[in-house]
Amino acid sequence: MLKMNAVRKIYRTDMIETHALRDFNLEVKEGEFVAVTGPSGSGKTTFLNIAGLLETFEEGQYLLDGNDVSRLNDNVRSKLRNEKIGFIFQGFNLISDLTIFDNVDVPLRYRGFSSTERKTRIQHALDMVGLAARARHLPSQLSGGQQQRVAIARALAGEPKFLLADEPTGNLDSLMARQVMDMLEDINKNGMTIVMVTHDPDLARRAHRNIQIVDGQVTDFKIYESYAVSPISGSPTDTARRVDSGEHMTAKTI
Amino acid sequence: MWQYYLRLSLLSLRKTPVLSLLMVLAIATGIAANLTILTMHSVVSSNPLAHKNEQLFAVQLNTWNPAREYSALNNLPPQLTFKDAKAIYDADVADEIVVMQKANIIIHQRESSETPSAYHTRMTTRDFFSMFDVKFIYGGPWSKEADKNPERVVILSEGLNNKFFEGVDSSGKTIELDGQLFTVMGVVSEKWQLVPNVYDLNNLAFEPAPDAYIPFFLVAERAYQNWGNIQAWFSEDVKSNQDFLQSEKIWIQAWVSLNSADKYQEFSHFLESYIATQKERGRFKRSPGYQLNTPEEWLDIHNVVSTDNKQLLMLSFVFLIICLINSTVLMLAKLLRKAPEAGIRRALGASRSSIFFQHLMEAFVIGVAGSMLGLLFSLGGLAGVRELYSSYENVAVFNSVTVMSAVLLALAATLLSGLLPAWRISHAAPAKYLKTQ
């Protein structure tokens, strides 16, 4: 689904050159639910932005759904982003002037769907997150948890192939965070590939795999039992079979 | 998508009404100032006889002081003496010829309740009406015979006909001019008006069309009060109308129509021959002896579009640019505040061009609103010009050129004020804003 080989990303200012990712290698298979952890400034968000085709990189290769997307122009990247990737952000990132309905409508507009098609998809997505009755409300009239559910509906309305979530529960209390995680798990069970950046080890444990990024490199793996027995993952790998619940493995041992 | 962009633009404008209003006002002020001056300039600098520019010629004959050249215009006197005007008329060389003066004549109609008043009357020859494309609503020009053996015939303007004959066809009816009965031959449409009055730039270039027209050579019968300029380069003892007609005073405007190069040559040869004859009589001591000017040249010679006018036009464009820069800066401030939203849209699949056109639409909406308001403001501006300068009464009005200019200015204003902000926001890195929402 997603494969990065030796990706290097450098941020440059007049005085400083920051290596955000270096020799970054990662593969996420279709149907996986991967949690990405790491200290602040380690490169998690940079990875997510590159994975989401929001940023380019200097070196390396990025294969998305089997296609090399490393050096595409803006139009093609935007089209791929619109069709294949859904985003969920920590701050929800709903457009405050638009109603819930219109917020979910945004990616569908850029897809060029007909009015009827858009309406059906919006209705379905809002039904799925239990907010169909709030379609005409503004984001400010909803709670944080509800806003994140709208963001999930927006991310899913276009039926992308994989979902990128950047601290999706970071701004929510524990109850709402649990609800959102339940929802993401359900979505994953239905076949969606999910990559989630988080600081919370408990949330990371609910993913199939935990990848730790330090100084712009993948330094550590943890494969959880849920992934080893997951029906989505197909036949478990040899590595997965060796893993007990929460067994700690390093990139080298893998 | 443009309907979606339009909806988003209106939503955005409603969200920041004060800032939006400031932008609209900035554009409107610039366009109003520019449009008012552009309207004036376009009318003032137009040549209403452009379609006849190759065949009509204002005639100048240099009968001026042998010791000192005519000090204005192109250093040749702009008007003719009566004897020269009559000579070129009688020669009958040109395809059409007009000799004329502006006169002040008391007009009265006995059956009308209107009191006798002085009216702007053009004493001219028959060809005036065809040469200057005069439009009639009733009747038509007098005959050539009425020129040669002057008849008391008159052509009225539509306004005067409305005043004295309540707008009905007055052809064949009589009316008093300076106490003498004249027969009405026709009525000129009030829509006919050359702007500027190319045919007589010695007087006000933008005054309304004459109220009445009578045959020029009636001047030989009696002295009509000249309402134009009479110039002389030496003092002459003038005791009678005949003395005046035979004097060296210049007061007659002359135009000829020469429809071919051969005709032009023929008329030029005639003038050279005439001047040679006159030289033998001690006249025409200056060189060149004559000049034929196209309507465009005539407008240039008379400096109808003054240097001030041109500078004012340039200033108005500078002012418009300043207003557009103001609007651009405000637009930039407004749109950059929306960069986070643009970042979200980019993350959700909007391309740079989508973001660019969405925000260009917002600039376009503001530009159109500013232009419409500017159009209203310039209506006020033109009304102000009419109020201040009565001679511009017929000039300071919108016409198709003005309205077209408004549309073009609106588009230009939109593009200019919106391009940079739309480009900037479409090229903002989306990732930067997604964390900061």
The order of strands across the largest sheet of chain B is 2-3-8-5-7-6
What amount of the residues of chain B lies in strands? Answer: 5-15%
Poorly predicted regions of chain A? 228-254
What would you give as the CATH superfamily of chain A? P-loop containing nucleotide triphosphate hydrolases
What is the overall number of helices of chain B?
Answer: 14
In CATH, what is the class of chain A?
Alpha Beta
Number of strands of chain A: 11
Under CATH, the topology of chain A is which? Rossmann fold
N-end to C-end Cα span of chain A = 20 Å
Compute the average pLDDT of chain B.
87
How many distinct helices of chain A?
Answer: 9
- Series of secondary-structure elements of chain B, N-terminal to C-terminal: HHEHEEHEHEHEEEEHEHEHHHHHH
What structural category arises from helix and sheet content of chain B?
Answer: alpha+beta
Describe the model.
- The complex is a heterodimer of chains A (254) and B (437).
- By secondary structure, chain A is α/β, with parallel strands linked by helices.
- In chain A, 35% of the residues lie in helices and 26% in strands.
- Chain A has nine helices and eleven strands.
- Chain A has helices spanning 44-51, 74-84, 100-111, 115-128, 144-157, 174-189, 201-205, 225-228, 238-242; strands at residues 2-12, 17-28, 33-37, 59-64, 67-68, 85-88, 162-166, 193-197, 209-214, 217-223, 248-250.
- A seven-stranded mixed beta sheet of chain A has the order 6-7-8-3-9-10-11. A four-stranded antiparallel beta sheet of chain A has the order 2-1-4-5, with helices on one face.
- In chain A, helix 3 (100-111) runs parallel beside helix 5 (144-157).
- Chain A is globular and about 45 Å long.
- Chain B has 437 residues and is of the alpha+beta class.
- Chain B has two domains: 2-45 and 306-434, no CATH class; 50-301, no CATH class.
- A six-stranded mixed barrel of chain B has the order 2-3-8-5-7-6.
- The longest helix of chain B has 37 residues, at 352-388.
- Chain B is elongated, with a radius of gyration of 30 Å.
- The mean pLDDT of chain B is 87.
- Classes of the chains: A alpha/beta (254), B alpha+beta (437).
